[in-house]
């Protein structure tokens, strides 16, 4: 048999007698993809619809202005909202500078082997279960000292650092190399180049990563159970003591045998979901505006 008669089975340019079969497979794959996407959307709609149906009727002005009530009275989540805002805010203050500096080192200063090592370490840290972080902070700081909002913020900061660092590092590496080279060619120090050229160019992506990380840790319950869950039913701004938080309040109310408490748990869950959705929408808006500005739109 001559070489001209040999047909390469992997040659996609060769004519095929199975064109009909290929079209059927293509239609089947497309149908499966559409059904999978529809299932994901339906699942999200089911979750949101259930929380909305069970929690919306409990939401009123008093729900946002009153703290948790005692002795069966109808209370609110004002204390939990303030506690969550303080703890998440402190966590962001702790985590964001460290994460950005780590990302700058990986993207701008580290060699290939060091950068690969730190990326793997960040991925491993990002995969550590939140409850393990809570136990770590509990054993290291809480035991013998008592719970504190600061310790809760430390636990959430540990969860935020790898998320923000990896997102920032990926964005920094997308900054065109010629911008750095032009700045360095003019005699500008590397640190000044990073501060004045690289970071401003990547600020949109960095903010997006921070917003997504905040939305992620705002719903964490396990670390706060170990660090800031034994609280009083009153509004407090003292971060040296344990403060109530929205995720822990949802957990506590959902475990109550009282139907009113369970209904309040659904309402608090609705507030938390609304916050997470708002943060994700904000991240998308920031990313789209930054992309348009880079495209000159």
Sheet bearing the most strands, described? Answer: none
Number of extended strands: 0
Per DSSP, the total helix count is: 11
Determine the mean pLDDT: 86
Helix/strand structural class: mainly alpha
Which regions contain 5 or more consecutive residues with pLDDT less than 50? none
Order of helices and strands: HHHHHHHHHHH
Percent in strands: under 5%
Q: What portion of residues is helical?
A: over 70%
Give the N-terminus to C-terminus distance in angstroms.
61 Å
Radius of gyration, in angstroms, nearest whole number: 26 Å
Shape: globular
Oligomer: single chain
Layout of secondary structure:
Elements lengths: L18 H37 L5 H5 L12 H32 L2 H15 L3 H13 L6 H26 L2 H9 L4 H29 L3 H6 L18 H9 L4 H37 L2
Helix pairs in contact: 1-11, 3-6, 3-8, 3-10, 4-6, 5-6, 6-8, 7-8, 8-11, 10-11
Task: Please summarize what this structure is.
With 297 residues, this protein is an all-alpha fold. The protein has eleven helices and no strands.
Describe the protein's architecture and organization.
This protein has 297 residues and is mainly alpha-helical. The chain is built from eleven helices and no strands. Helix 3 packs parallel to helix 6 and helix 7 runs antiparallel to helix 8. The relative contact order is 0.13.
